Amino acid sequence: MTQTIKVAMPKGRIYKKASELFREAGIPVRPDVDESRKLVIELPEIGMEFILAKPVDVPTYVEYGVADIGIVGKDVLLEESRDVYELLDLGIARCRMSVIALPDWTPGIYQRVATKYPNLASQYFREQGQQVEVIKLNGSIELAPLIGLADRIVDLVETGQTLRENGLMERETILDITSRLVANRVSYRMKNAEIQSVCDALSKVIPVKTGI
Ligand code: PRP
């Protein structure tokens, strides 16, 4: 008997691309459920259930086993450092994590960096031998240097539009990012055949890297 697979899907910008990939893999996830208020979508005909989660919470659901597998950006995966298996690089939602500043930035004695990723940013500046104060924000990070909260920010760059529209400059790339398929360690053993078949179907439709 096959067992139901619970999938934690990130709401928001990754959802569209991830649901597209599932559909190409023959798993009929609707493109628009993200816009409704429904949080659990059952697909009993194919033995799957989709949980629509805040992206940053996906690794938590998977670690605790309330979702067997999940889709999550490498940025969140590294920042949250949850105990999950990384099964597959899905090659979608490609972007980079960078250090960003106003064009006239020069290193001062006391430096502040604003970011949604305090762990990754602290680790990066420690490795660079730079002493900085890291300030955690939850969004619109680009505001920080514009209004004087921080000298630099660590944030994601996809098209570069946000930087251009706010007169900011990318100074260093910390990390290239794509979405990953992750699994709960126990689920991976107990529901191995089911998880492996989702993994195989997705791996056949992963987009080819086009180089940024
Ligand atoms: C992300 C990121 C940047 C922007 C980059 O923010 O934090 O602000 O997208 O994309 P771009 O290079 O294509 O302009 P998001 O829209 O997720 O919202 P947030 O600012 O609330 O984090």
Automatic annotation (TrEMBL):
**Pfam family, any one:** HisG
Q: What is this protein called?
A: ATP phosphoribosyltransferase
| Keywords on record | Amino-acid biosynthesis, ATP-binding, Cytoplasm, Glycosyltransferase, Histidine biosynthesis, Nucleotide-binding, Transferase
Q: One GO CC annotation, please?
A: cytoplasm
Q: The organism sits in which domain of life?
A: Bacteria
Describe the location of the ATP phosphoribosyltransferase catalytic domain by residue ranges. 54-203
The subunit structure is: Heteromultimer composed of HisG and HisZ subunits.
Keyword Translocase attached: no
Q: Write out the GO MF terms.
A: ATP binding; ATP phosphoribosyltransferase activity
Domain remarks: Lacks the C-terminal regulatory region which is replaced by HisZ.
| Catalytic reaction(s) noted | 1-(5-phospho-beta-D-ribosyl)-ATP + diphosphate = 5-phospho-alpha-D-ribose 1-diphosphate + ATP
Q: Which GO terms describe its biological process?
A: L-histidine biosynthetic process
Q: Where does it live in the cell?
A: Cytoplasm
PROSITE patterns in alphabetical order: ATP_P_PHORIBOSYLTR
Functional pathway: Amino-acid biosynthesis; L-histidine biosynthesis; L-histidine from 5-phospho-alpha-D-ribose 1-diphosphate: step 1/9
Residue ranges spanning the membrane: these are none
Entry EC no(s):
2.4.2.17
What job does this protein perform?
Catalyzes the condensation of ATP and 5-phosphoribose 1-diphosphate to form N'-(5'-phosphoribosyl)-ATP (PR-ATP). Has a crucial role in the pathway because the rate of histidine biosynthesis seems to be controlled primarily by regulation of HisG enzymatic activity.
Q: Which family does it belong to?
A: Belongs to the ATP phosphoribosyltransferase family. Short subfamily.
